[in-house]
């Protein structure tokens, strides 16, 4: 069934802080992946904003960039985490603080004085890339010892503590573990639930495998701490994000599956270095798979794309592993982040993109013709994505708990609200509040698992446009399952859409929504699409003996890509080898079904 509502008078409860916890939960938007001057790669690119500055920016306060430009968010975030690379925070403390050990080291004097892009790139390759993309990473010679890393961590922790305002703005203590064996991107962002954090953090230099990271996390739990890990950039993982073996080549086991699922409830879907949901090369039947594919990643470190580098491939692989092992190691909900290296939290407006890596992509010319060293061509950059959670209130505990139970989603930038419930006999909804009430009472929320007694589950979906953004095209449900023969399968269903379009019975495709973008002015109108969409779908082909996942994907009508805004503002021709328009979207965490649960 399908319904669409032509106004947003029916709202899914404001994202603003509630005076009392809301049992139906509010949508909160934030950032879970960004870097400040404490990340060496950000600093060498010109970043000088500190963690406190980044958190100020997240709250809507103005910050001054190194070139004197004042930046300010149009709309403050609800929550944020600074995730500086753990590998070199000590070195950066020595670089930036005159009284720090090692401040006068010749290499650090050189680092502080460099301005030429090529010089910076050569320095970064020498001291960072050549080491950190090996199997035996080492600190550079100017590392002044663990005390410097502890001092840096103290500053990062204090900034989060100072910014945290329960009920108004949530700031998490966090860091990034940046594992990249032989160039395979296995980075994880570590998010702590509260102020109970260790005196220092673990890096890829200290622990060279994800299993080692989980063991460190287990030790933190034994000391009473609560933390989770969010893998990102699976598109650059060289087939290792969703592996067939452990990092040392051993077989996957039930303990491996349970450990990974325990510590890693979420995965990042999109960031400035491209999308990780799917790629058109492997999902040709998915008409929306050609979205921020970032093909030029394959030019660096042997990062040739594999189907298993992408999240949908990983989800499907997880079902097969559950069939084999008895537990799913890749049971991931979805979250967003930018990986911005300018210190700017969630700078995700297509019409205001200034790059994310200092001068490497900080000009129109560099974005059109240059590259980000060791990573990607400028024209292939995305603006990144937003993290969104459904939580009872805007506090660390409530938002972290939503992440842990996977009641989350990601958007490609707009503040779309997206929700899905699954269960037996759910009503075809016409009101989002009643849909949520019924969903929590008798069904399962995004990120949950259906009971084994389910018979032909019904999924209810709702999406609401960004109040200052584009209208919505449709909501889809993507299903993946493992059949009784152990084979994996996928299906995409258009559940609800705008206008009076119909699905073509021969092709099974819904007609495109249309396109109002004027490529000469980089403007669009909301003359097509809908402001809200609500509906349901029942899986009539459901087999209770087959494991499955289901996730919702909401799409906007076409709007200009950042590269089109760049071209129009600068009086330049549109780039020929990147799309001039895109359909922004939101991805909801899956709901799983496991036989015999």
Summarize the entry for a quick read:
By secondary structure, the protein is α+β, with helices and mostly antiparallel strands. The chain contains 13 helices and 29 strands. The protein is globular, with a radius of gyration of 23 Å.
Q: Uncertain regions: pLDDT < 50 for 5+ in a row?
A: 1-18
Gap from first CA to last CA:
29 Å
Provide the helix percentage. Answer: 10-25%
Shape annotation: globular
| Main β-sheet description | 11 strands, mixed
Protein described:
The chain is an alpha+beta fold. 23% of the residues lie in helices and 21% in strands. A hairpin with a 5-residue loop joins strand 3 (63-64) and strand 4 (70-71). The longest helix is centred in the first third of the chain and has 18 residues, at 146-163. The radius of gyration is 23 Å and the shape is globular. Mean pLDDT is 94; it is low at 1-18.
Keywords, separated by commas or semicolons:
11-stranded mixed beta sheet, 597 residues, 5-stranded antiparallel beta sheet, alpha+beta
List the helices and strands and how they pair.
Layout: E1 2-5, E2 26-31, H1 40-44, H2 51-58, E3 63-64, E4 70-71, E5 79-81, H3 89-96, H4 106-113, H5 117-132, H6 146-163, E6 170-172, E7 174-177, E8 188-192, H7 210-222, E9 227-231, H8 254-263, E10 266-268, E11 270-271, E12 274-275, H9 311-325, E13 333-335, H10 364-369, E14 371-372, E15 376-377, E16 386-391, H11 396-404, E17 408-411, E18 417-423, H12 432-442, E19 444-445, E20 449-450, E21 458-464, E22 472-482, E23 488-497, E24 532-538, E25 548-556, E26 559-560, H13 562-570, E27 581-582, E28 585-588, E29 591-593
Parallel strand pairs: 2-5, 5-6, 10-13, 20-29
Antiparallel strand pairs: 1-24, 2-16, 3-4, 7-8, 8-9, 11-12, 14-15, 16-17, 17-28, 18-19, 18-21, 21-24, 22-23, 22-25, 25-28, 25-29, 26-27
Helix pairs in contact: 2-6, 3-6
